[in-house]
Amino acid sequence: MSDNAIIGKSVKRQDLLAKVTGDARYVADMQLPGLLYARSKRSNVAHALIRRIDTSRALALPGVKAVLTHQNVPRVLHAGSPHPRSASVTCDQYILDDKVRYWGETVAVVAATSEEIAEAALDLIEVEYEPLPAVFTTDDAAREGAPLIHDREPGGNLVLPPVKTSRGDVERGFAEADLIIEGEYEGGRPTPAYMEPNACMCQWDGNGNLTVWISTQTAFMVRGIIAEVLGLPLHKVRVLVDHMGGGFGAKQDLFQSEFLCALLAKQTRRPVRMEYTREETFLGGRTRHPAKIWLKQGFKKDGTLTARQARVVFNSGAYGSHGPGVTIVGTGALSSLYRCDNVELEGRCLYTNSPIAGAYRGYGVVQTYYALDIQMDEAAHKLGMDPAELKLKNAVREGDIAPSGHPLIGHGLEDCIRRGMQEVGWAALRRRTRDSGVQRRGWGMGCEMHGSSAYPGIKEQGNAIVKMNEDGSVVLLTGTAGLGTGAHTALAQIVAEELGLRFESVSVMHGDTDVVPWDIGAFASHTTYLGGKAAQLAAAEVKRQLFDRAAELLEAAAGDLESIEGVIRVRGSDRTISIRDAVAPRKGVPAAQLVGSATYHPTKSYSFAAHFVEVVVDTETGQITVLQVVPVHEIGKIIHPIAAAGQIEGGIQQGIGHTLYEDYQIDLKTGRSLNANFVDYKMPLSMDMPPIRTVILETAPDPGGPFGAKGVGEDPIVAIGPAIANAVHDAIGVRFRHYPIRPEQVLQALREKQADATAQNEEGVTA
Amino acid sequence: MSKRVVSFTVNGEAREIVVAPNRSLLDALRTEAGLTGTKKGCDVGECGSCTVILNGQPVNACLVLAAEADGADITTVEGLQAADGTPHPLQDCFMQCGAAQCGFCTPGILVAAKALLDRNPAPTTDEIRFAIAGNICRCTGYSKIIDAIAMASTAQEATR
């Protein structure tokens, strides 16, 4: 459908050669002369005041250069998720505090000449705690008289005042309904489990300038909050990010190690690096918000939705982090996906003495759409309808108001559902005879939509600078981060396409806050959408300058020129000049200095998906195996097909994980972490992954994105969960309303179903 | 603890390093030998990011003591390219197929795949899955990795 030269082609990703050769440098791979190694001492209580902390024996250990506790670091209240101008900033953290709020929280750090010495010193730090009553569930945290984890508004362990959204009249809607369904749904505590443990390294120069090497999605926000907390102007803090080993949302936060490394480096006047162990990456990292969702919907006999009411409670853990954003976005998402005129939603988010929940791919929507989509499946069964047809009938479409408050463009969700039904032969699958043996197969489908950009929670801004060199090659300066998605390659494609250059003529400079333009960070599925559009606009500005110059040389009007593959042509003629010649220095005349910069303020676009899944349930072991997935995504415009498909396949892997296995658990008496490792925290591996047949549609391009492109990063993790749960119902007739769905729960449910059936039969006989 | 001298061959080069007896081969490779391509994802043998080939066998370098590797022949990701810098067919196919995203697990998986192809030049899909069953990748969903290893096997066979 496109005549683009570079967009839509799987060009060679610019970061991969370094990654396959081992040359790519991650923070832990960097060496500096005199480097010290820092380690954290973590609490072994979930809620306590620190009565006494004695570091004298640790300091006396040869090789130990500095020890920091709450007694000798600045006490500055700050947000762990430092989004400027955002609704979700929650100032509730100190660098180190005299109060511990979860099991595993850092209470002291050591810098030493080796990791072994730093580790040994941790055992020499004596901490005396005064334990406080702790709460681990949102039910307990919300109870009257529950211990308060923070002393801040609005009180009652609420992270923010309840979020309420409504339209229409739900009471009237329910009164008009022929069928009302309500249910409680629950989501566990998966973690992003990125492969590169958190790492950061700090060094001060003799002039008081701080350099921070860090694995983060949000370099400029790290710079901002470090400067704010340490009392430095922004030009004294330089944050460098090169390669990073995944983030999936969680590496938007500050993890306290950044401040502590900087302070240790300052005190010792040596560079200091802190790498989290894998266990610490669980303990001190971020999880998805565990959630409880009460959902009630009304339907007409023909499947028309008449009312939707929901109460959502998110467990924020010990700090606010992204609690407000997740609550607003996750709750608000329930206003959409399936059309309904009468909606009343309430979202709450509560502190507990649990691991900190933060941003993680899907951002609250994973939880709420799990409930919504499963309930649609339940409704279809009660109405005697095909679930896919019911969802298609109610799918949001062109002109419907999205959660962000503006009208949707196109019919992406309907397109995804229809295409998926065709791909898998859905109608025939519905008609088939169900298995009755030990192994029972089932098909299910789930839908989702997800916004690119965090608008309106954050008024975003994308920036880019494009410079053309005197040989016609180009450098894009972008502040966007490269989590591993291939986003920088996509941006280079966009610049090359806009300028009519070969892809190989574009390089991307990123990851240095002193050099590249400000960027909000890589999250909210927005890098290609937002950073890409800014890059396109900056490239268009360079193109304008280039054509002005070429027009003189070609003795033509700039408006009559076009450029393709590095050659400028007067449209409809054979008069051409290469871009290289157009900008090159000529005798006595310096090369043209062509620089374009652009700032782009987007609103939001929505991408859509429908996932079709086949599972098999072993009725003797309770094991659920996903046999195949057919994900259909509508993303406006594909920039790099392999990278887009890679996002989808990886998202499905994580989604299968949280639906069937992944749950980071704590002991509900002590708050102690129970499975902070990759053996006990089970993720899908190469042997577990089913074949995935990805279909990507471009049927609803968004003019707000480059060449119509929308985001794809978060979408794939959302729809897979309900699709699996619905497929399990299709296989064994048991409805699960929580994740992860464990084998023992499957067996238990099958036993109960059997008992009910037997009881009913006996009743029938006696009657 | 008194340090000891350990000699081994890494990627065809004889090396001699001085390490504490409790130093892991992973730390020794990354720090003393300066080969940081091999990654530390867990340090306890659960993720496979530190896979190296030790005397022909793929191992988690975090579970081997450097001292145990005395006299050994070791291949790390840095040893896959030809002497002239030409990428190994596995490296080529990983780039072509998009088998790497964040890249952190990639060195370990490439090395595990090389160990597989060295002993089984034409593996089945199931054999490929099994060979990398100890390597966690959190980005790709594995299918492009499996495709890339299969493609490299075909490419190698074609030039044999």
Describe the structure in your own words.
The complex is a heterodimer of chains A (767) and B (160). Chain A is an alpha+beta fold and 767 residues long. Among the domains of chain A are: 16-21 and 461-600, Aldehyde oxidase/xanthine dehydrogenase, molybdopterin binding domain (Aldehyde Oxidoreductase, domain 4); 419-440 and 607-767, Aldehyde oxidase/xanthine dehydrogenase, molybdopterin binding domain (Aldehyde Oxidoreductase, domain 4, 2-Layer Sandwich), CATH 3.30.365. Helices cover 29% and strands 24% of the residues of chain A. In chain A, the strands form seven sheets. In chain A, strands 3-7-1-14-11-12-13 form a seven-stranded mixed beta sheet, sandwiched between helices. Chain A has a six-stranded mixed beta sheet with strand order 9-17-16-15-10-29, sandwiched between helices. Chain A has a four-stranded mixed beta sheet with strand order 18-26-27-28, sandwiched between helices. In chain A, a hairpin with a 2-residue loop joins strand 22 (561-564) and strand 23. The model of chain A has no long low-confidence stretch (mean pLDDT 96). In chain B, strands 2-1-5-3-4 form a five-stranded mixed beta sheet, sandwiched between helices. Chain B has two domains: 4-79, Ubiquitin-like (UB roll), CATH 3.10.20; 89-159, Orthogonal Bundle (DNA polymerase, domain 1), CATH 1.10.150. In chain B, strand 1 and strand 2 (13-19) form a beta hairpin. Chain B is an alpha+beta fold. Chain B contains five helices and five strands; from the N terminus they run E-E-H-E-E-E-H-H-H-H. Classes of the chains: A alpha+beta (767), B alpha+beta (160). At the A-B interface, helix 1 and helix 17 of A face helix 2, helix 3, helix 4 and helix 5 of B.
